Amino acid sequence: MRLSDCHNVEDLRRLAKKRLPWPVFDYIDGAADDEITKVRNSAAYADCDLVPDVLAGVAEIDPAVTIMGRRSALPLILSPTALQRIFHWHGERAVAQAAAKFGLWFGISSLATVSIEEIAALVPTPKMFQFYYHKDRGLNRSMIERCKAANFDAIALTVDTIVSGKRERCARSGFTSPPRFTPSSILSYAAKPRWALDYLFREKFSLPNLDTHVREGTGEAISIANYFNSMLDTSLDWKMAEQLREEWSGKFCLKGIMSAADARRAVEIGADAIMVSNHGGRQLDGSRAPFDQLREIVDCVGGEIEIICDGGIRRGTHILKALASGASCAAGGRLYLYALAAAGQPGVERAIGLLKDEIERGMRLMGVTSIGQLNDDHLRWRR
C-alpha cells in the first residue's frame, strides 16, 4: 500500500499501522478503558443527515473562516498532539509546514518534540500552544514566557487531563516516552526496521519545551499515564485558569469543555474560545461525543465565544455538520497523526488535501458559497 493508494483518513490509518511498531501505533490509535467514547466521537456524525439546497450558483465558493482573529483557509484546526517525532522523524516540523502550505491554524503540545522557538521561526501560520498545567510553577511560567517571546497566537489550556485516563493498550504494550526497548517489545520494534533506524540514528528524541525543568518523558523513560499522574496539578480550578489567562494576556482557549455550564464559566473568565473535546476518548470513557454535545453548548453560549468542535473528524462532511450545528470551526488530531506516521510531511499534506476536496465538494453539493451560510436548517437528526 502506497500513499497514492490512500483516499481517506481510514486508508491513512491502515498505512500507518503497516509502518509503525505496534506499541507506537496503539499509542496513537488507542483510547481509555473500553474505547467506547473514541468510537462514539466519529459515529455521532452518522446520526445526523445533511439537507442540501440546489440551483444555488456555486461556481465560486470560499471555505475560509476567521479563528481567534486569524484567517484560516479551511474551517479546520490541526489539534496539538504530543510526541510526534516518535511517529515519524519529520514530527511537528511536518505538521507545521503542511499547515502553512494550506493556510491553516495548528497547535503544538507542551509535550512536543520540537521547540516553541523553532516552530515559531519555521512558519508564519497561526499557532496555538497546548498548555498542560504542571505542579512545577517555574515550568508553567517558562512555557508562557517562551510563547510570548515567540509570538504564538493563542494558548489552549487543557482542562480534561489533570490525571491520565486508563489507556489499556499502552499498559499492555509498555509504551513509554521515549520508547524503551525491553525483551517483550524489542521484536515489535525490530519488525519495522525503517522506523527503528530513523528513531535510532536521526535527531535524538527530546521534549524541548519541558527538558529545562524535568527529565521524565525526555531523558528518562516514563509512561504517559505516569507522567500525567505525577507531573500535572490536580488542584487546577477556574481561578487558576483565569490567572493563567491574565498572565498570558493573548488569545486564550479552554480545551476539553463538554458541558454548557462550563462553557458559560469560560465566557465569564474571558476566554476567547473553547474546544468542545473529550481528548479523543483518551480520558473519561463513557462520556459524550463532542458533536453530540455541541448543540447544547451552542444554545448556551453561541455568539459569545468561539466554539471549536474537536474530535472524531474523519470526513469533510463531518466538518460541515459541525459548522451547521453552530461550531466556529472543527479540529482533529488523529486525522493527521495517521498521515504523519504513514508518510511524514507528504502524508500530512495528503490528509489535508483530501479533507479540503471533501469540504469544497460538500459545500457545492450543499448549495452554499461560504461557511457562514451553513445553519441548522441544513441538518436533520435521526433520533
The CATH architecture assignment turns out to be Alpha-Beta Barrel
SSE ordering: HHHEEEEHHEHEHEHHHHHEHEHEHEHE
Strand order of the largest sheet: 4-5-6-7-8-9-10-11
CATH hierarchy class name: Alpha Beta
Q: How many DSSP H or I helices? A: 16
- Return the domain count: 1
What is the CATH homology-level superfamily? Answer: Aldolase class I
Please estimate the helix content.
40-55%
Can you give the mean pLDDT?
Answer: 95
Low-confidence stretches: none
Determine the strand fraction and express it as a percent band: 5-15%
Count of DSSP strands? 12
The structural class is alpha/beta
What labels would you give this structure?
383 residues; globular; 13% strand; TIM Barrel; 16 helices; two-stranded antiparallel sheet; 43% helix; 12 strands; alpha/beta; eight-stranded parallel β-barrel
Q: What topology does this entry show?
A:
Blueprint: H1 9-19, H2 22-29, H3 36-43, E1 48-50, E2 65-67, E3 70-72, E4 76-78, H4 84-87, H5 91-102, E5 105-109, H6 116-122, E6 127-131, H7 137-149, E7 154-158, H8 168-173, H9 186-190, H10 193-201, H11 224-231, H12 238-248, E8 251-257, H13 260-268, E9 273-276, H14 290-301, E10 306-310, H15 316-324, E11 329-332, H16 334-366, E12 379-381
Parallel strand pairs: 4-5, 4-11, 5-6, 6-7, 7-8, 8-9, 9-10, 10-11
Antiparallel strand pairs: 1-12, 2-3
Helix pairs in contact: 1-16, 5-16, 13-14, 15-16
